[in-house]
Design goal:
This protein has 334 residues and is α+β, with helices and mostly antiparallel strands. The chain contains nine helices and 16 strands. The chain has an eight-stranded antiparallel beta sheet with strand order 2-3-7-8-11-14-15-16, with helices on one face. A hairpin with a 2-residue loop joins strand 12 and strand 13. Helix 2 runs antiparallel to helix 7.
Length: 334
């Protein structure tokens, strides 16, 4: 069954999804093959570095257009920017809100996985995200009282979306779309670049990688996956892709240790604590980066057995799972 069939309709899949930004490395970019010069630009959006490497692009306006799209999407999806649409939704004065088509699309995609994961994946997880500090290695474990107070405000079943009308059953419910925004943005950027005639290049949003076509010499792009808790740039395996996306979610991106216990940023919305299932990393190869962004987190939350079984039920999606013993398990088509 297709990803759409499993998780509901995504109305604009041609257009274009804070977990998936792990380090993925290009092992070989190729040079100027076929006379196409490489041009690269970087920006900072979605709380990460956005890196574009394009071949045969001579007009600076193409890059300017990409970053204009990123700015537009930040103004839609940022939970912390006070001028964003999502911020306005989270600080609403009414239980019913009309939202943009783009915001409704991502909310629909996020809500569809709430049931698939029995509530572990929940886009109302914002209150939990706020009480955990994974940006500092000196993190603090929330008290049971604080944790329970946050958990009482997390429940995607209290959100109903009908078309572009969003209804909340509780005024305390807040949405968090960090697990899908970068994938959505990558797909949107690729669509724009192909409209501009770009046939070879890469889009990298903090490790969320989406490729355009092949390298200029006609070969596949080679992408290295970071070794969990390895040295910076240490690769555990490589994957070749052509026009596809590779996204990873893992425990070592943002974490801290306390009293010998590892606490990482992939939270189980049912318990409020980081998920514990023996996995250290899940990588997804797919056509759309939105699918990779969602599924890398969803499959991590499902665990090694259920997560791999779910991937095998989807068309055009493959996965690599790495456990705490650094044992790698691949889906049948990886």
């Amino acid at each position: 069954m297709s990803l759409r069939g499993k998780a509901g309709q995504w109305r604009r899949t041609a257009r274009f999804g804070a977990t998936a930004a792990l380090a993925l490395f290009f092992l070989f970019f190729g040079g100027c093959g076929n006379g196409k010069q490489e041009e690269s630009r970087t920006g900072y959006y979605f709380d990460t570095v956005v890196s574009l490497r394009l071949y045969g692009v001579k007009d600076e306006k193409v890059f300017e257009g990409c970053f204009a799209i990123c700015e537009e999407l930040e103004r839609t999806f940022s939970r912390t920017r006070e001028d964003s649409e999502l911020y306005a939704v989270n600080h609403r004065s009414s239980d019913t809100v009309e939202v943009s088509e783009e915001l409704s699309e991502l909310i629909e995609a996020g809500l569809s996985y709430y049931n698939i994961t029995d509530g572990a994946f929940d886009i109302t997880v914002a209150p939990l995200s706020e009480i955990w500090d994974f940006k500092s290695k000196e993190g603090k474990v929330p008290s049971e009282e604080i944790l329970q107070e946050a958990l009482d405000r997390v429940d995607a079943s209290k959100v109903r979306l009908e078309g572009r009308t969003l209804t909340f059953a509780s005024p305390d419910t807040m949405l968090e779309l960090g697990a899908v925004v970068k994938g959505y943005a990558a797909d949107r950027l690729k669509e724009y670049l192909e409209e501009q005639g770009v046939t070879a290049g890469t889009i990298n949003l903090g490790g969320n990688v989406l490729t355009i076509g092949n390298k200029p010499d006609g070969t596949n792009w080679k992408i290295g996956l970071q070794k969990p808790f390895g040295d910076s740039g240490e690769i555990i395996e490589t994957v070749e892709v052509s026009g596809q996306s590779v996204v990873s979610s893992g425990v070592y991106e943002r974490y801290f240790r306390k009293d010998g216990q590892l606490y990482h940023h992939i939270l189980d919305a049912r318990t409020g604590y980081p998920v514990e299932n023996g996995l250290w990393q899940v990588s997804i190869r797919s056509e759309k980066s939105l699918a990779g962004d969602l599924l890398s987190t969803v499959c991590f939350l499902l665990g090694p057995e259920k997560g791999m079984a779910y991937v095998e039920s989807l068309e055009g999606v493959e996965a690599s799972f790495i456990d705490e013993d650094l044992q790698i398990t691949h889906s049948s088509g990886w």
